[in-house]
Design a protein that fits this description.
- Helix 6 links the parallel strand 11 and strand 12.
- 37% of the residues lie in helices and 19% in strands.
- The chain has a single domain, classed as TIM Barrel (Alpha-Beta Barrel), CATH 3.20.20.80.
- Strands 1-2-4-8-10-11-12-13 form an 8-stranded parallel β-barrel, surrounded by 4 helices. A two-stranded antiparallel ribbon has the order 5-6. A two-stranded parallel ribbon has the order 7-9.
- The N terminus is likely disordered.
- It is α/β, with parallel strands linked by helices.
- It contains 9 helices and 13 strands.
Length: 301
């Protein structure tokens, strides 16, 4: 019936029959929180009611919690600021704002005084332990999703791919999480692992939190847009989010054109969302750029 209707329309209005896809939603704002123990709370961060807002607790790490943490083969423990970011506070912020979801991030850069390595004993044992330990944490905290932010590896890309891919698949299949993201940056070893994961399990990954702030400080708008196009091609078909770092230590800063670049991407229907590292650092400045980011995302197309 639709086909016949289109034929009739083509006969009557031959130049006006192209069917336009609806604009992609681009109102997602995400913020990492809790890694630096700056006493930041969910309620400190401004939440615009007209965006989809994800807090990302940082970090859950498969290391023990001793003074000299060591790998535990997928047995995750909490390494974020639990005094200020507790299960009751998760429930409170979600009850207060219907547009807020909360996730946890796995890995991160460091633990105690050393790097946090991805270091499984085997795929099967790591996945089994990870599914069990993360399900317990996610249900305890009433969380909605996970983010993968391993940055250092003692395993090859294929092992990383199977461990993380099977973990995300199992957590989604079991109804434990509703979304998953990855957080790569432009480093050969990092990209080799995440691109291998993307090629096989990209259909399970909802967002790519690409760390554009890992590029050099003083990045220009033109360079940033070029980097965005490159990574969008690398993670073809993915929702690649743009990002800045609160302390201004790298990438294109909000003070030097970040929002100009975002506006350009939004006008081209390529702005899938914005994320920030991190609320811990933004607290001192009153979350000025979080407010500006959400205001931009909330503007209709």
């Amino acid at each position: 019936m639709l086909f016949i209707t289109l034929l009739i329309l083509q006969a009557i209005f031959p130049s006006q029959t192209s069917i336009q896809a609806a604009p992609a939603k681009s109102d997602l704002f995400r913020e990492y929180i809790g890694a630096e123990f700056n006493n930041v709370r969910f309620t400190d961060v401004p939440v615009n009611p007209n965006v989809e807002f994800h807090f990302i607790l940082s970090f859950a790490i498969d290391y023990d919690t001793s003074s000299s943490p060591s790998p535990t083969n997928g047995k995750f423990n909490i390494f974020w600021d639990t005094d200020n970011l507790s299960p009751s506070q998760v429930s409170s912020i979600k009850n207060q704002h219907s547009n807020v979801k909360v996730a946890l991030s796995l890995g991160g850069d460091s633990v105690a005084n050393g790097y946090a390595y991805f270091n499984p004993s085997s795929v099967d044992s790591w996945v089994s332990n990870a599914v069990s330990s993360l399900t317990r944490i996610i249900q305890q905290y009433n969380l909605d999703g996970i983010d993968i932010d391993y940055e250092h590896f003692q395993a090859d890309p294929d092992t990383f791919t199977e461990c993380i891919g099977q973990l995300i698949t199992a957590l989604k299949r079991n109804g434990v999480i509703s979304f998953a993201s990855i957080a790569p940056f432009d480093d050969d070893q990092v990209q080799s692992h995440y691109l291998a994961l993307w090629r096989k399990y990209g259909h399970q990954i909802d967002y790519v939190n690409f760390q554009f702030y890992a590029y050099d400080k003083g990045t220009s708008v033109a360079q940033f847009l070029n980097y965005f196009n490159t990574q969008s091609s690398n993670y073809n078909g993915g929702k690649v989010l743009v990002s800045f770092i609160s302390d201004g230590s790298g990438g294109l800063s909000p003070a030097n054109g970040f929002f100009t670049a975002c506006s350009k991407l939004k006008s081209q229907n390529q702005l899938h969302g914005i994320f920030v590292w991190s609320a811990d650092d933004s607290k001192a400045g009153g979350f000025r750029y979080e407010k500006q980011s959400q205001a931009l995302l909330a503007i209709p197309h």
